[in-house]
């Protein structure tokens, strides 16, 4: 055969030729492992280990003890081997990788805290009784004695000391600015009550010949942004007016019956407390509302009213009051000039100085004086400095917990559990959350599902504590956070989507609760509310702006009382948020580990009737705080994944007679063949998904100056889903607000929805499989146009 010129050159090496072994059968993991070990035996030990990216976390291979749920870290040798972390996994069941792949905190938690030589003196406490008293401010002896004996107020605060004499002697407009909890409400109420009482009483307290009553005219109007604040101002004013029972005050707020409000106005009122929208409505439609005798117009929490979009209503109210002729005497012939102001006086109150407050001052104030708590700040303002920095009260202790997104929920429960671990340590706590959907979800998740047992014979104590029907869905005993010292903790929820009677009843229940209580609420409770015995404020979601943060933490440490505020922050860019927060004392950073260790040192009391429970603790398991955190997270996720409607036979304690549905699907879940049409979804799961969507949308509404700290592009949605006990983040986050209408089968609306969609456009955004239904496209389009025009976070997330 001829040579074709091809040369084959194979280098076989000096070693013997070995055939490659091919492994068959068994599991593919075992085959790969055996093939890898055979390859290593053939090539020999490698001198240089393979390089690994140092930024990636170490893998955790399975152990050979047969337990598929147990994981261990890869052991490393050498000088660079780190010590085992304090939260090393040693549990027998893994709910989720709570303690892995979390971002590293930037804050140095090992830095020693500087201890104060002396505890900070309260900055909003009343002054000493020897130095000042109410009678020395110019108030009548009758009012001063009533404050001292009935209300147990013997000395004024700093803002009251500077405001009361000014509003009694002068008739000029005023801008009151002081920190939260300093007594601004009484600062403007006492001069008004004193001067109205002077129409009926002499300086020595003897009655005059002419005495005013409820039909003598309307003398003062007080505007507040929220209904709760209006109710609170009315309660304070009613206590002050007990020394003058012939004077009457009332409220006109949204959510109440306009017919009953008109009846009260027609009957007669001297001081009116209202929300801007409802008052503007009455000025247009209620003819019996005569503002000719009005001498005072008070705008409380002016910055909040501007933020909520009441600028046009306030312009209308101020214009109509100023346009009406000022009467010098009332219809009864009582001369008003000389006792009451000779002009209409406007008082603007705010704890912060922002641009919208200055704009509101331009609308309502004329030649106003600036009154603050300290004389030095008033002198600075007289020199031309209009900016004043108002921080939280000096006796308020602030702390921030840097916690990863996956551990937020269990850390919150651990913080509440440690808070109520000692009897009498904390009576009331407030948790601020960004949106109403998240409030509803956390309330349903943390409440106890056991229905209270009714006594066979009503006792005297049970008749006093009758349940209010308005609070059936907003007040319930709490689970998870109870302790042997406090076996009963009452849970409350409050947000702007609730009906007004429900909101009023819930707030009253929280204020008068004798047991330890927790209020889960939105920013609707951040302004002006004075609830006694609030010792702790938790900002689970940071405020949308720094002034809102100041108002939130101002719900505690009021009138000289001590208080504590805790802020939850994510590791990373959010940690720099504390640098822009005003604080009289440094904000102490804390790592979540210390909170979990303290809160989960003992077992967690789970709800009594849940179908999913964590594994019981025994001496063999040796539960640690990490294992309890994992078991708690697993329990919460199983609660959301539990299928509703299907009642197992072993879970029903006392079946009703002739119960044919036990262990079966309900009729609504069955098709004609007897099989379930679709797998039912737990309502708690739907609530968690909706809360997650609303939370992410609310996260994007921080003010522009603070978005460098709250960057939504840095938010890990998968990790944040764990904070809502979800296994994976739901879709539809960017879908916006749409009105969903469930139409009955066979209706005209259903036929229209089938034909008008066009390629699925008319179907409901149901990518999570959380039910069936269709969207009213026209209603959704109108809602989107409305939201585009308003562009107000308060309207979308129901925080106002």
UniProtKB/TrEMBL annotation:
The keyword NAD does not apply. GO terms for biological process: rRNA processing. Residues 53-82, 449-464, 653-662 have a biased composition (Basic and acidic residues). It catalyses: ATP + H2O = ADP + phosphate + H(+). It is found in: Nucleus, Nucleolus. Keywords: ATP-binding, Helicase, Hydrolase, Nucleotide-binding, Nucleus, Ribosome biogenesis, RNA-binding, rRNA processing. Residues 37-46, 92-105 have a biased composition (Polar residues). Residues 1-107, 449-471, 644-683, 733-783 are annotated as: Disordered. Residues 165-371 form the Helicase ATP-binding domain. Residues 395-608 form the Helicase C-terminal domain. InterPro entries: DEAD/DEAH_box_helicase_dom (IPR011545), Helicase_ATP-bd (IPR014001), Helicase_C-like (IPR001650), P-loop_NTPase (IPR027417), SPB4-like_CTE (IPR025313). One of its GO terms (cellular component) is nucleolus. GO terms for molecular function: ATP binding; hydrolase activity; RNA binding; RNA helicase activity. Its EC number is 3.6.4.13. PANTHER family: RNA HELICASE. RNA helicase. Belongs to the DEAD box helicase family. The Q motif is unique to and characteristic of the DEAD box family of RNA helicases and controls ATP binding and hydrolysis. This is ATP-dependent RNA helicase. The lineage of its organism: Eukaryota, Fungi, Dikarya, Ascomycota, Pezizomycotina.
């Amino acid at each position: 055969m001829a040579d074709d010129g091809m040369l084959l050159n194979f280098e076989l090496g000096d070693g013997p030729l070995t055939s490659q072994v091919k492994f068959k059968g068994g599991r593919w993991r075992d085959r790969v492992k055996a093939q890898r070990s055979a390859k290593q035996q053939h090539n020999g030990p490698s001198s240089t280990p393979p390089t690994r990216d140092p930024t990636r976390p170490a893998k955790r291979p399975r152990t050979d003890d047969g337990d598929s749920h147990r994981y261990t870290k890869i052991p490393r040798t050498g000088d660079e081997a780190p010590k085992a972390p304090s939260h090393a996994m040693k549990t027998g069941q893994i709910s989720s990788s709570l303690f892995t792949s979390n971002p590293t905190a930037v804050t140095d938690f090992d830095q020693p805290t500087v201890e104060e030589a002396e505890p900070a003196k309260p900055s909003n406490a009343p002054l000493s009784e020897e130095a000042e008293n109410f009678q020395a401010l110019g108030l009548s002896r009758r009012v001063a004695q009533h404050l001292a004996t009935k209300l147990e107020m013997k000395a004024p605060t700093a803002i009251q000391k500077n405001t009361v004499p000014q509003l009694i002697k002068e008739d000029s407009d005023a801008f009151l600015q002081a920190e939260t909890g300093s007594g601004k409400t009484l600062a403007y109420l006492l001069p008004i009550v004193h001067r109205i009482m002077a129409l009926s009483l002499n300086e020595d307290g003897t009655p005059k010949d002419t005495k005013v009553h409820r039909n003598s005219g309307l003398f003062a109007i007080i505007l507040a942004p929220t209904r709760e604040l209006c109710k609170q101002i009315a309660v304070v004013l009613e206590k002050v007016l007990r020394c003058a029972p012939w004077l009457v005050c009332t409220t006109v707020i949204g959510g109440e019956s306009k017919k009953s409000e008109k009846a009260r106005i027609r009957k007669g009122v001297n001081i009116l407390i209202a929300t801007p929208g409802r008052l503007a409505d009455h000025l247009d439609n209620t003819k019996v509302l005569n503002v000719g005798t009005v001498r005072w117009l008070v705008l409380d929490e002016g910055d909040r009213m501007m933020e909520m979009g009441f600028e046009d209503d306030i312009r209308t109210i101020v214009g109509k009051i100023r346009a009406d002729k000022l009467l010098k005497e009332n219809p009864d012939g009582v001369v008003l000039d000389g006792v009451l102001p000779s002009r209409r006086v406007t008082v603007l109150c705010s704890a912060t100085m922002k641009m919208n407050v200055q704009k509101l001052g331009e609308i309502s104030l004329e030649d106003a004086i600036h009154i603050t708590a300290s004389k030095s700040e008033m002198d600075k303002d007289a020199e031309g400095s209009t900016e004043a920095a108002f921080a939280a009260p000096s006796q308020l202790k602030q702390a921030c917990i840097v916690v990863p997104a996956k551990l937020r929920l269990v850390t919150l429960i651990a913080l509440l559990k440690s808070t109520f671990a000692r009897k009498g340590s904390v009576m009331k706590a407030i948790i601020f959350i960004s949106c109403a959907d998240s409030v509803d979800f956390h309330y349903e998740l943390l409440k106890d599902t056991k229905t209270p047992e009714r006594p066979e014979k009503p006792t005297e104590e049970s008749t006093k504590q009758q349940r209010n029907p308005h609070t059936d869905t907003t007040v319930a005993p709490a689970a998870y956070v109870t302790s042997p010292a406090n076996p009963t903790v009452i849970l409350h929820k409050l947000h702007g989507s609730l009906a007004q009677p429900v909101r009023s009843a819930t707030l009253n229940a929280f204020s008068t609760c004798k047991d330890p209580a927790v209020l889960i609420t939105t920013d609707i409770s951040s302004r002006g509310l004075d609830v006694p015995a609030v010792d702790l404020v938790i900002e689970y979601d940071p405020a949308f702006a720094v002034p809102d943060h100041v108002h939130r933490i101002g719900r505690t440490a009021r009138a000289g009382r001590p208080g504590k505020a805790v802020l939850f922050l994510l590791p990373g860019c959010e940690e720099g948020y504390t640098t822009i927060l005003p604080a009289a004392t440094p904000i102490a950073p804390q790592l979540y580990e210390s909170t979990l260790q303290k809160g989960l040192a003992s077992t967690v009391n789970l709800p009594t009737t849940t179908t999913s429970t964590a594994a019981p603790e025994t001496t063999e398991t040796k539960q640690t705080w990490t294992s309890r955190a994992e078991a708690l997270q697993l329990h919460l996720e199983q609660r959301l994944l539990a299928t509703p409607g299907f009642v197992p036979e072993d879970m029903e304690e006392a079946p009703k007679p002739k119960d044919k549905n036990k262990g079966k699907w309900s009729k609504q879940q069955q098709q004609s063949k007897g099989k379930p049409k679709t797998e039912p979804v737990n309502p708690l799961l739907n609530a968690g998904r909706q809360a997650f969507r609303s939370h992410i949308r609310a996260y994007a509404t921080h003010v522009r100056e603070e978005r460098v700290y709250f960057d939504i592009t840095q938010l890990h949605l998968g990790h944040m889903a764990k904070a809502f006990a979800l296994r994976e983040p739901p879709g539809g986050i960017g879908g916006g607000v749409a009105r969903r209408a469930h139409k009955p089968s066979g209706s005209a609306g259903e036929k229209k929805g089938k034909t008008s969609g066009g390629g699925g456009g008319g179907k409901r955004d149901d990518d999570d499989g959380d039910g069936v239904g269709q969207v009213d496209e026209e209603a959704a389009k109108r809602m989107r146009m409305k939201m585009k025009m308003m562009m107000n976070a308060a309207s979308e997330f129901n925080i106002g």
